[in-house]
């Protein structure tokens, strides 16, 4: 059975388009967790947004309706 989505290790060790988003999102999440002020919440939100962008760019496009 073929895998439809690459695993995180493969994304982080190759030149995958989602790699910068995962690295930046993970770093912002780590810094946001360590901070206890409002800026920590902002960093957490930015980290989550970057991880969502990474997930979108890591999944293959299946909606071909935009090409019509």
How would you explain this protein's 3D organization?
Helix 2 (about 20-35) packs antiparallel against helix 3 (about 40-60). It is built from 3 helices and no strands. The protein has helices at about 10-15, 20-35, 40-60. The protein has a domain at about 20-55. Helix content is about 65%, strand content about 0%. By secondary structure, the chain is an all-alpha fold.
Topology of helices and strands:
Blueprint: H1 8-13, H2 19-34, H3 38-58
Radius of gyration equals 15 Å
Q: Enumerate how many helices there are, as a single number.
A: 3
In quaternary terms, these chains amount to single chain
Helix content: 55-70%
What structural class is derived from the secondary structure elements?
mainly alpha
Order of secondary-structure elements: HHH
Overall spatial form = elongated
Low-confidence stretches: none
Q: Could you tell me the strand content as a percent range?
A: under 5%
